[in-house]
């Protein structure tokens, strides 16, 4: 009967966690973030039959989360809800798994239930559970690994140890930060070697089998990394501190990271809007007391592996954040600490409760227990108010989750269905949010960066320009748009502003562009129509030049159009790329205006320089300049400019 009561309490806790993670999932959070859409697009590859062991795109992504998501798509259909439902279900599964692992470690069902309840009600865990990011998958796999490893180590069961090792290998398929979990496990067993030597050596054969199981599960991904070392290092190279600093500076970075990571528990949490209410610490003050007491209890009992495991787990899985250079504290990289820190908080609350009840009369003991229940309930109520009543309604949250790109995608799909040519002006080329929400936008014309304007020559019912609010045009491009388009009603955001501006190309613009004569051509691929080059410019600021050109035919290979700045001796001082309209989109007759920026190197001498246009294949090989159909070298002289001293 007692066991049934505990099971019912675990079910109730899980049900409350489910309500927090599933209610309003189609609305909260709003929009669909760039990275969430990337994971959705990768899951679609699996959905359609591909079986990758690693995704090399977007600086590299481990695939397990996307495999789970593809399965969810099979159940509920393809969409943003399916992306976030994947995380919600994984986050929900973590709640009972935390109970199981803490029950095994502490042999105390109340501690285990409190840890599960803290997990269910944690604001941090709830936020990640409702977002579509793969770090949500680390904690449940860690729990399974620790659960089976501890059972096997405690009871001398090689089968449990092998199963735990298999989950160590599996967690490496989740997210970059998970690479430190095997290190964390190794640290724990090194500790066991030092303080629990007799049992460690008696379990050594099982531990070796666990390591073998981890290696075998990891082998397919490991083989991929051996064949493609760039995939292993690309993202790590971008964030690891020792790749960017050295010596005393690196030690200072690590020291600052440690302090800020510790501060994230109680003082100032993750500053990123899509992972947290910026600055909100992991623990509220009362729960922080429980955590600190739990740490003290674990340290006091440091010779007992079941107590030492939780702080070692916490320290080890903080390393993915501590070892990097980025805004601190890093919630997404240290998310693997959640089962351990919630277990420590529960251990501390249990210690406080037992201590209080030891000194209280029966009525006081009941009040102490009720106070503990009230504290946990307060945690849940506070999380609901903060998440649903505050964070999801803030303008910054709406913006960070790319809500405007969801609106843009839906409008673009409607316009394309009406037979119009749609030009999408986005911060990123083929923005994943737009592509995931409306796959037909792959047929749209794409510009990115706010420095270009295209007049496509396509048979359609008109040309519509959709510009996301986070991608405002540079001043010369804005002037062109005002001259060549008619402004239509914008798509509003939730706060009375503009999410997406909408414009229509004037009826006469296409015909007028066809009549613009060419100054020169590069092979039979593009024509240079005109350019605006100032006579003088300061030498301490980037040089800007407006270029007007026309595509003569489709090109399947990559092309580069560059502007070179050379001196009187022909020495190249700098160059700028005209890359706003990628060659894969060219159609015969399309014309484009591009504001090309040439960064000037510090200390460039004042004086006269020449700007030259150069057009070539990606990877090398220049195409010839033609004037009146006659070859005229490989560089197009575009005029002189004098750089003035400050």
Write a brief caption for the model.
With 646 residues, the protein is of the alpha+beta class. It has helices at residues 2-22, 34-47, 64-76, 80-106, 109-121, 123-129, 138-155, 158-171, 181-195, 197-202, 204-227, 229-239, 247-266, 285-300, 305-322, 338-358, 362-389, 395-400, 403-417, 432-437, 475-484, 509-514, and strands at 421-426, 445-448, 452-455, 463-468, 485-492, 498-505, 520-522, 526-532, 536-538, 543-551, 559-566, 572-578, 591-598, 607-617, 625-627, 630-631, 636-644.
Oligomer: single chain
Strand order of the largest sheet: 3-13-10-8-7-15-16
Mean residue pLDDT: 96
Give the helix tally.
Answer: 22
Q: What class would the helix/strand composition place it in?
A: alpha+beta
Specify the biggest β-sheet.
7 strands, antiparallel
Distance between the terminal alpha carbons, to the nearest Å? 86 Å
The poorly predicted ranges are none
The rough form would be described as elongated
Percent of sequence in beta strands: 15-25%
Helical proportion, percent range: 40-55%
- Overall number of strands: 17
Radius of gyration: 30 Å
Characterization of this structure:
With 646 residues, the protein is an alpha+beta fold. It is built from 22 helices and 17 strands. It has a seven-stranded antiparallel β-sheet. α4 runs antiparallel to α5, α4 (80-106) crosses α6 and α14 (285-300) packs across α16 (338-358). It is elongated. It starts with a helix and ends with a strand. The model has no long low-confidence stretch (mean pLDDT 96).
């Amino acid at each position: 009967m007692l066991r049934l009561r505990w099971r019912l309490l675990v079910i109730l806790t899980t049900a409350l966690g489910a309500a927090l993670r599933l209610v309003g999932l189609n609305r909260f959070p709003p929009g669909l973030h760039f990275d969430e859409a990337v994971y959705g697009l990768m899951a679609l590859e699996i959905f359609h039959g591909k079986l990758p062991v690693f995704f090399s795109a977007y600086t590299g992504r481990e695939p397990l989360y996307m495999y789970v998501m593809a399965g969810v798509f099979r159940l509920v259909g393809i969409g943003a809800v399916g992306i976030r439902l994947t995380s919600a279900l994984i986050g929900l599964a973590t709640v009972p798994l935390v109970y199981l692992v803490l029950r095994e470690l502490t042999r105390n069902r109340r501690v285990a239930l409190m840890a599960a309840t803290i997990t269910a009600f944690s604001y941090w865990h709830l936020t990640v559970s409702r977002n579509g990011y793969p770090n949500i998958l680390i904690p449940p796999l860690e729990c399974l690994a620790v659960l089976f490893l501890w059972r096997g180590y405690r009871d001398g069961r090689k089968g449990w140890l092998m199963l735990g090792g298999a989950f160590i290998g599996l967690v490496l398929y989740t997210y970059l930060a998970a690479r430190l979990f095997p290190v964390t496990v190794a640290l724990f067993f090194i500790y066991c070697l030092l303080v629990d030597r007799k049992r460690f050596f008696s379990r050594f054969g099982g531990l070796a089998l666990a390591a073998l199981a981890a290696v075998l599960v990891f082998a397919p991904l490991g083989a991929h990394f051996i064949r493609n070392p760039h995939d292993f290092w690309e993202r790590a190279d971008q964030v690891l501190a020792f790749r960017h600093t050295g010596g005393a500076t690196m030690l200072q970075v690590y020291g600052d990271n440690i302090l800020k990571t510790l501060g994230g528990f109680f003082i100032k949490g993750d500053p990123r809007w899509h992972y947290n209410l910026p600055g909100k610490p992991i623990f509220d003050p009362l729960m922080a007391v429980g955590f600190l007491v739990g740490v003290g209890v674990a340290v006091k009992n440091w010779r007992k592996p079941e107590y030492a495991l939780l702080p070692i787990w916490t320290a080890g899985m903080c390393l993915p954040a501590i070892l990097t250079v980025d805004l601190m504290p890093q919630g997404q990289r240290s998310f693997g600490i959640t089962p351990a820190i919630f277990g420590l908080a529960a251990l501390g609350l249990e210690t406080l409760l037992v201590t209080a009840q030891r000194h209280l009369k029966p009525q006081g003991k009941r009040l102490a227990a009720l106070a503990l229940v009230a504290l946990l309930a307060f945690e849940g109520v506070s999380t609901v108010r903060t998440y649903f009543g505050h964070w999801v309604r803030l303008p910054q949250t709406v913006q960070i989750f790319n809500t405007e790109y969801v609106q843009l995608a839906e409008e673009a799909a409607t316009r394309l269905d009406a037979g119009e040519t749609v030009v999408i002006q986005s911060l990123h080329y083929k923005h994943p949010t737009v592509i995931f929400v409306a796959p037909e936008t792959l047929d749209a014309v794409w510009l990115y960066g706010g420095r270009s304007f295209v007049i496509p020559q396509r048979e359609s019912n008109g040309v519509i320009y959709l510009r996301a609010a986070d991608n405002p045009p540079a001043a010369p491009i804005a002037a062109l748009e005002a001259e060549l388009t008619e402004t239509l009603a914008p798509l509003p955001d939730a706060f009375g502003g503009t999410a997406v501006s909408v414009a229509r190309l004037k009826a006469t613009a296409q015909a007028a562009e066809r009549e613009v004569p060419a100054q020169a051509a590069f092979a039979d691929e593009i024509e240079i129509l005109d350019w605006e080059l100032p006579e003088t410019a300061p030498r301490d600021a980037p040089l800007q030049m407006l270029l007007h050109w026309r595509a003569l035919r489709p090109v399947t290979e990559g092309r580069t159009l560059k502007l070179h700045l050379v001196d009187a001796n022909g020495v190249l001082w700098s160059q700028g790329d005209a890359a706003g309209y990628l060659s894969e989109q060219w159609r015969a007759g399309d014309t484009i205006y591009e504001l090309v920026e040439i960064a000037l190197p510090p200390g460039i001498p004042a004086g006269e320089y020449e700007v030259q246009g150069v057009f070539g294949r990606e990877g090398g090989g220049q195409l010839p300049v033609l004037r009146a159909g006659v070859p005229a070298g490989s560089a197009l002289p575009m005029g002189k400019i004098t750089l003035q001293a400050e």
